[in-house]
Design goal:
It is a single chain. The protein folds into 2 domains: 2-90, no CATH class; 99-320, Fumarylacetoacetate hydrolase, domain 2, CATH 3.90.850. The radius of gyration is 20 Å and the shape is globular. By secondary structure, the protein is of the alpha+beta class. Strands 1, 2, 3, 4, 5, 6, 7, 9, 11, 13 and 17 form an 11-stranded mixed sheet that branches. The protein is built from 9 helices and 19 strands. It has helices spanning 28-34, 49-54, 56-70, 72-81, 106-115, 192-199, 260-268, 289-292, 294-297; strands at residues 2-7, 14-19, 25-27, 89-90, 99-102, 130-132, 138-139, 154-155, 158-164, 168-169, 180-187, 190-191, 213-221, 238-243, 246-252, 272-273, 278-280, 306-311, 315-320.
Length: 326
């Protein structure tokens, strides 16, 4: 099952939807209404993405029942009436309580540190480290982005993300998957010149990251990845990034040094995770201009460029780069 949040009738408000197998989308609220769930304990699950992600079994059962009752063709027709054939995507979870971005791919870390004349710190192999990014600046598929003020080195970062379904604290590695709703695509857009300056002080990243992070378009639920997750907890998905149609980056999410259960255990150690919280893998090897070198990619991102991040089974997350408003 693939879930998304789309803009409701150009109001800016979020509307949870499910992607239909043959294309198009259906509103979870409309599904609940047509199944006569109004006034029941389950109705609220269809109005709020965080509640839906925390109760995926119930949501899935009702969606399946709705499809059997109405059929896919009728479902698509209802979606068209609501304008869902070409929706305006928002982040799958608009306002998560937190967004932790990890640093889990050795190739990326080693290459970027080597460019600064730095060795790999031994602690990196022992502890999966992360930083808290700005959960209030998430944007959706096709949302335009401009470089922040003072930035001349705008970059993309190709990342896999997970969205928490069932919350928890001090989650054991062996229980980690019970707390995962599904996977999504993350473009951790980065102002490299701002980042370089602020991190020279020993803190950050901060203003080099918090202006915009693209997420989506979908959360694909965990059952979609049967057979793709190894015993350690690494999911093996092909990943690539294109700028203006030209492929610049390619990798596989299975090359993470630290597997997902370890990341979830670290994130939840002495801290509560909540439904909808977002965890990023960090950049896959070759997954940004900084790592590849602007001299080999045609330079940093500029107005008129279109960045496309594609991950197997998750689709394409597209981000147009535009001029900064006066």
């Amino acid at each position: 099952m693939r879930l998304a949040t789309v803009e409701e009738f150009n109001t800016g408000a979020g509307w949870p939807v499910v992607a239909l197998p043959g294309g198009g989308h259906a509103s979870l609220e409309q599904i609940a209404v047509q199944l006569d769930l109004v006034g029941t304990d389950h109705f609220d699950l269809f109005l709020n993405m965080e509640l839906a992600l925390a109760n995926l079994d119930a949501v899935r059962q009702h969606v399946d029942a709705w499809m059997k009752k109405f059929g896919e063709e009728a479902a698509q027709a209802r979606g068209r009436k609501l304008g869902l054939e070409s929706p305006n995507f928002l982040p799958p979870v608009q306002h998560p309580r937190s967004f932790r971005d990890f640093y889990a791919f050795e190739q990326h870390v080693k290459t970027c540190r080597a460019k600064r004349g730095l060795e790999m710190p031994p602690a990196w192999y022992e502890v999966p480290v992360f930083y808290f990014s700005n959960a209030g600046s998430l944007i959706g598929h096709e949302h335009p982005v401009c470089a922040p003020r003072g930035c001349a080195e705008l970059d993309y970062e190709l990342e896999l993300g997970i969205v928490i379904g069932k919350g928890g604290r001090d989650i054991a590695e062996e229980d980690a998957w019970e707390h995962v709703a599904g996977f999504t695509i993350i473009n951790d857009l980065s102002a490299r010149d701002l980042q370089r300056k602020e991190m020279s002080v020993g803190l950050g990243p901060a203003k080099g990251k918090d202006f915009a992070t693209a997420v989506g378009p979908y959360v694909a639920t965990l059952d979609e990845f049967d057979g793709l997750i190894d015993e350690a907890g690494r999911v093996k998905l092909e990943m690539c990034a294109r700028v203006n149609g030209k492929e610049l980056s390619r990798g596989n999410s299975g090359t993470m040094h630290h597997p997902w259960p370890k990341l979830i255990a670290q994130a939840s150690a002495d801290a509560e995770l909540f439904p909808g919280d977002l965890l990023g893998s960090g950049t896959v090897g070759t997954g940004c201009i900084l790592e590849l070198g602007p001299e080999t990619t045609g330079g940093w991102l500029k107005p008129g460029d279109v960045v496309e991040l594609e991950i197997e089974k998750l689709g394409v997350l597209r981000t147009p780069i535009v001029e900064r408003p006066e």
